[in-house]
Design brief:
With 440 residues, the protein is an alpha+beta fold. It has 14 helices and 19 strands. The strands form four sheets. A six-stranded mixed β-sheet has the order 3-2-1-4-6-5, with helices on both faces. Strands 7-8-11-10-9 form a five-stranded antiparallel β-sheet. Strands 12-13-14-19 form a four-stranded antiparallel β-sheet, with no helix packed on it.
Length: 440
């Protein structure tokens, strides 16, 4: 934990605990670690409502949380009538629930119990699907829904965790669904258990070699992103074409995927063939204005300007009253202090808006509103930064309205009558899962 956190200082964190051996071991281990550091712990347990014994497991975890004087938050998900891709859907739902509750409670860090065996299984699954080399890098730390996910057991084998539990006379539950052959991970787990010693040694050697190569590639990707990509607070990006064309193809693919995911606010990356086509057109200097992944791509002054198309802006807005201070610090550098009560809105999967006054509507600008407001709008900075694509980008930004009119466009410092001046904070904070820049 200390190596992963580095210089980051935390006062609270959450732990995902299912009742199985891995997460129960993590719970006990993190309790020892947190006690000396006076870290406040919250335990999340998710009932997927797929197994009748889940209630017993949740009750057991709740008792353990009480014993350690940890906060306990039970969560529930129902799959409905749909049974296809149940494991994948359950996993997404689990992380969505936990991350949303982390944000409600002002928690920036969530621990999960993935261990070395899990990493090895994931490596084999991705290798069988011919995933890119970067996908072979152990995903020890990343972000989900802007919550930092950390796997502190990443280099510990399952057998070591079991030995720890036996040695300390700690009880856990076995999930019988882990034996079902209908799940790919279970089949791989069983196959690994039957490998001869020499086969296992060869597999570990390949895994370590692949991980090292992926680590180097990841470092190159991070450096390339810093040198080639600029992302602006207005929610658009620029890619330097000359520098981009000098990169390797795999790095180019990940950069395009990264930028389009961030700017669109979508969690799905574009189709491989479409990305390859963009790369080919850029290298041959035949690129023309195009659209991809809900984004507009324009070439100007040796740069690609990428912004979200206004037709795809979603005006659904997830708003919550915040009831805790969010202390700024290394882990929460994009958060800010407001005297409660204040209201946090998440708009279009891209922008976080903090208001200390309730009762406003968050939307994007309509043409008739723009025509009325033109004389009062100062678009000089936006025009300069976007190479005069300011009008198109303006229509993709959040604006604050009451029932009658637009009262604020924070990005261009427009405040009608000064009513909300100083009462609002907006930050470009894409709600996506980053496999590109958040690695240990």
């Amino acid at each position: 934990m200390n190596n992963i956190l580095g210089a980051n200082s935390i006062s609270r964190l959450a732990v995902a605990v299912s009742g199985g051996a891995d997460s129960i071991a993590l719970l006990y281990l993190i309790a020892e670690w947190a006690k000396a550091r006076k870290v406040d712990i919250t335990i999340f347990t998710v009932n997927h409502n797929l197994r009748p014994e889940s209630k017993l497991e949740i009750n057991y975890v709740e008792k353990l949380a009480g014993r350690f004087k940890f906060k306990f938050v039970p969560l529930s998900w129902n799959s409905g009538d749909k049974i296809t891709a149940i494991q994948e859907r359950a996993r997404k739902a689990r992380y969505d629930l936990m991350s949303e509750n982390c944000k409600k409670l002002g928690i920036s860090l969530l621990l999960t119990a993935h261990h070395f065996d899990d990493m090895l299984e994931t490596y084999l699954i991705r290798k069988s699907k011919k995933s890119s080399l970067l996908a072979h890098f152990p995903n020890i730390t990343y972000f989900w829904n802007n919550v930092w996910i950390v796997r502190p057991l990443f280099n510990i084998e399952k057998k070591e965790l079991i030995e720890y539990l036996y040695k300390n006379n700690i009880t856990w539950f076995e999930d019988q669904s882990n034996q079902a052959d209908k799940y790919e991970r279970n089949r791989i787990r069983k196959k690994l258990a039957t490998l001869a010693k020499a086969e296992k040694a060869n597999l570990l050697a390949n895994y370590n070699l692949s991980s090292e190569k992926a680590k180097l590639l990841n470092q190159s990707l991070i450096q390339s992103l810093a040198e080639v990509v600029s992302i602006y607070e207005y929610g658009f990006a620029k890619i330097n074409i000359v520098k981009f064309n000098g990169l390797g193809d795999e790095i180019k693919i990940h950069i395009i995927n990264y930028v389009l995911t961030v700017i669109s606010g979508k969690t799905l990356i574009p189709r491989y063939r479409n990305v390859i086509n963009i790369i080919s057109l850029l290298s041959s200097k035949r690129f023309v204005t195009s659209t991809l992944n809900h984004c507009k791509l324009i070439v100007k002054n040796e740069e690609i300007i990428i912004y979200k198309e206004k037709v795809f802006v979603e005006n659904s807005c997830d708003g919550k009253q915040a009831y805790q201070y969010i202390q700024p610090g290394p882990l929460t550098k994009h958060d800010y202090r407001f005297q409660p009560p204040y209201y946090v809105y998440y708009w279009d999967n891209r922008f976080e808006i903090v208001l200390n006054k309730p009762g406003y509507i968050i939307s994007n600008l309509k043409m008739e509103e723009y025509i009325t407001l033109i004389p009062q709008l100062n678009l000089e900075n936006l025009a300069k930064d976007s190479d005069n694509n300011h009008k198109s980008i303006l229509f993709t930004l959040p604006v604050i309205k009451n029932l009658e009119k637009v009262v604020a466009i924070p990005h261009i410092s427009y405040y009608d009558g000064g009513v909300l001046s100083g009462a609002i904070k907006v930050i470009f904070k894409p709600n996506f899962i980053s496999r590109f820049t958040h690695f240990f």
